[in-house]
Amino acid sequence: MPNATLYATIGDRRRLERRIVAGLGGRLMLLLLFRHGEAEEAGPGCPDAKRRLTPQGEAENRLCLEAVLRAGVRPDAIVHSPLVRAAQTAQAAAEVLEPPEGLHEDERLACGAELRDVEETATQHAVDTLMLVGHNPDFSVIAGELIGGGAVALKTSGIAAIQLPVVSAGAGELQWLIRPRLFASP
Fold first, then answer.
1. pTM for this structure?
2. Which of 73, 77, 105, 185 would be 101's cystine partner, CB 3.0–4.6 Å?
3. What confidence score (pLDDT) does residue 75 get?
């Protein structure tokens, strides 16, 4: 094995650490952070927790989920916020991706989720590929924290795939980011 002390950047160090973990029999998790699709505006007759997906939000979710399916990625489990728009997004994901360990609701993923909430959720659902469905700005901030800093702009219906040996700050590497506008017709 090359000298582990020789690395040019923090990114190189992280890649080396992941290779060492994998070589020692450790497993890498693929964490999919899925921001819910476009939702109705909140108002007097529509409190935030009850906001439903718009037809555009449903269509954009479908585009992104089909891309995940084409990439051959299938989460073992999907865990979602209890808010209606996130539950609808998670249900669509379950229908397309058919996770063997099913669909689960978790209060920790409601608006205001933090990295520790994602760490706890991932620990509870110890699988190789886990999809979490939630909200912004939470998921954009959490994605940035997981990859060691930087901005990750997770738009509505966006999905960030982060590979990590353990769910904690700075341990992950962004594998890909899907946004619905990648699939929009000109």
1. 0.86
2. 77
3. 98
